[in-house]
Design a protein that fits this description.
Layout lengths: L1 H34 L1
């Protein structure tokens, strides 16, 4: 059971990291659009 928990935490962290990267990209695009 401990192994499953560790795997869940790892996946959770990767998803969060991935989402943060996406958000950064979206925010960057939004800023570029606003400047026009």
């Amino acid at each position: 059971m401990v192994l499953v928990k560790e795997t869940e935490n790892e996946i959770d962290r990767q998803i969060r990291y991935f989402l943060e990267e996406k958000l950064e990209g979206i925010l960057e695009e939004a800023r570029k659009v606003k400047k026009r």
